Amino acid sequence: MRARTPLAVAAVLAVALAACSGGTESSSSTSGSKGCPLAALDRAKQPVQIRFWHVQTRANLDELRRQTDAFNASQSKVHVKLVDQTGYKEALQKYKAGLSNGDLPDLGQFEETAVQTLLDSKSTVTLQDCVDQDHYKTSDYIPRTISYYTVGGALRALPWPVSNPILMYDKKKFERAGLNPDRAPRTLDEVREMSRKIVASGAAKYGIALRTQDYFNEFLYAKAGQQYVNHDGGRNGRATKAELDNPTGKRIWTWWKDMVTSGLALATGSTEGNFDNLLSIGTGDAAMTIDASGALGPILQVLNSGQYPGVDLSAAPLPSLKPGGGVPVGDGSLWISNRVAPAKQAAAWQFAKFLEEPKQQAALAAATGYVPVRQSAVHFPDLQAFWAKQPAFRVPYDQLLAPGGPAADGSVIGNYQGVRDAVRDGLTAMLTEGTSVDDALAEAQRNADAAIQSYNDRIG
Fold first, then answer.
1. What are residue 50's DSSP bridge partners?
2. Residue 453 located in a structural domain
3. pTM over 0.85
């Protein structure tokens, strides 16, 4: 879901980890946690107060507050205080600083890109220990949500909340362009063809609005079956090299550039907090866009306010080079710090389990657009009724269930943000500075490799 250079990111990250971790951990290691102290909760003076760092906003935050209040009222052993964080990047930076100054959450929500960084910090509880000691069943989870956070044979975090990029489009603009409003494009070529009809008909100035978002690229590669880094996405040994500059990447980046230069796509830039791609649907400038499914809740909240009465928003799976393909897990996960008191670790586990209950997952999905990670959650009547009324909200769930090869398992990268910065800078140069596809992609590859290597060299 960044304007620093990859090497700067790597340097800052490595210094923080080297000072605080006292060692390293590769993605193939199972060390890093000294058990899950579940019994400590019963021995502690109750209620045990814990802090949960999260990044939820608007409708998503409303639902989290409701669930937290329900948990606090349901029992007397644990009391949860929510601590708002600006975003995933800021939360991880604050966590790294906390390894030195002691300001750490008991439970933290971090992006899927933080896995290797948190493992290298040796500061988190390996949740596999909690699962084993508590006889906690994970068989009801969407398999890919568990496999993503299973590194070195051990579960490191619980997926929460999960999303993935989807295509969002205005059915009314499709109708005005003579397109079937119930038939969204499945491939990038179809996005081009439908955009031509939309522009030619005058239904919208552009067929699609495209934010220069680094993580979109990862999902486009994954749906095409292309790994993002070597060593099986960093899961069969620490990633040492990106896999950006290849025939698959060239086809994707060529499509992206051609859409913008031909006037079929509106490039809305890469500025953090920029939602012009979404606003373009409401203003009528574009008929389609791509964004994270977790944005559906806030979007629906805005539409229900009557601010954009002419929009009939729908959604479809992320288009790809060819039909089909799977997507990795995106967005958030729950991590427990092993630097806090054992009773707080045990209390954090209890709250994490509550958030993961099918009932809570169903309510979160109905309110926000996030994917329910528990398969039994889809059988709750409220979620079924909501999906029947708002079928767009089911799209990311079905997309995560779609079959996918190893690329759909996602990547484990030390300086993940450095790789994303390299991709964002390459795309920006290609779209705004006239850089050729070949040159932009080659530069992104070099910068991504440098970020990965610098991080690995400093970590050891």
1. 80
2. no
3. yes
Mean pLDDT for all residues in the chain: 91
- One-letter amino acid at 353 equals K
Residue 193 belongs to a domain: yes
pLDDT tens digits for range 221-257: 999 999 999 999 999 999 999 999 999 999 999 999 9
Question: CA 105 to CA 99: how far, in whole Å?
Answer: 11
Separation of alpha carbons 459 and 443, rounded Å: 24
**Half-sphere exposure (Cβ direction) of 111: Cα atoms closer than 13 Å:** 21
CA distance 344 to 337: 9
Cβ proximity of 415 and 10 under 8 Å = yes
Residues 21, 45: one domain? yes
**Domain CATH for 256:** 3.40.190.10
**Which among 208, 169, 163, 192 has a CA at the least distance from the CA of 315?**
169
* Separation CA 190–CA 317 (nearest Å): 13
Token output for 415: 């300086």
Distances (CA, A) of 264 to 260, 288, 376: 6, 11, 41
Contacts (Cβ under 8 Å, ≥6 apart) of 97? 16, 103
Residue type, 232: D
**How many folded domains does the chain comprise?**
2
Within 8 A by CB and 6+ apart from 396, the residues are 163, 164, 166, 293, 369, 370, 371
Task: Decide: 14 and 120 in contact? Cβ < 8 Å.
Answer: no
- Alpha-carbon radius of gyration of the chain: 22
